[in-house]
Design goal:
This protein has 198 residues and is an all-alpha fold. The protein has one domain. Helix content is 74%, strand content 0%. Helix 1 packs across helix 3. The longest helix has 36 residues. 25% of the residues are buried.
């Protein structure tokens, strides 16, 4: 059994589970107010299928973009372990710091992508009030708007993933630790052996 692979996989699964659920919570609490500005859960409980579909597409889009922050963090941890041939707590902290930075950047980026796509589409169809139609359980509008958001997310995801990958300083992470020689270890400070005369 490859112990390092098991550790990397467990670390990746832990980040995906914890921050995936956190992303769903943030999407439900924050993006709903920024995009729909309505009481979503109450309308979904009343049987509004269109709103549930659109809400699901919002969560999917955010998760697709935020997911790109996990793999660079795992790669950073793997690079440090392979370079130093050991696993230390400091390596996990550095890797987790990378993840938090990328996660926050992904949240901001996903919000910008969704908001810009949403409002550009609304302005391009000024004769239709999409939010009002979704409130009326208009599935056609919900499907169209959901596909616009999903398509834009899939289109932007590879570029954002490459950007996040490029921010990892692998040269620094793979730099081996150098131990400085003390005065007692330097060649000039070592006492010479006395010469024997035959």
């Amino acid at each position: 059994m490859d112990t390092n692979l098991l550790i990397f996989t467990t670390y990746q699964l832990s980040l995906a589970l914890v921050f995936g659920l956190l992303t769903v919570f943030i999407t439900l609490r924050v993006l709903n107010h920024l995009v729909l500005r309505i009481k979503v859960l109450e309308l979904i409980q009343s049987g509004n299928t269109a709103l549930a579909l659109f809400q699901g597409s919002l969560i999917f889009c955010v998760l697709m973009l935020v997911e790109t922050s996990i793999l660079p963090s795992v790669d950073a941890l793997r690079a440090m372990v392979l370079a130093h041939q050991t696993i230390a707590f400091k390596m996990f902290m550095i890797s987790f710091a990378y993840f938090i930075l990328f996660y926050l950047a992904a949240l901001v980026f996903s919000s910008l992508v969704i908001l810009s796509s949403f409002y550009i589409f609304i302005y391009s169809t000024a004769k239709v009030d999409e939010i009002a139609e979704i409130k009326k359980n208009n599935l056609s509008v919900a499907i169209l708007l959901s596909m616009v958001l999903i398509s834009t997310t899939l289109f932007m995801r590879p570029a954002f993933s490459n950007l996040v990958q490029g921010l990892v300083n692998y040269d620094y992470l793979q730099k081996p630790a150098t131990s400085e020689e003390g005065p007692e270890d330097s060649p000039t400070s070592r006492p010479e052996k006395p010469r024997t005369v035959n």
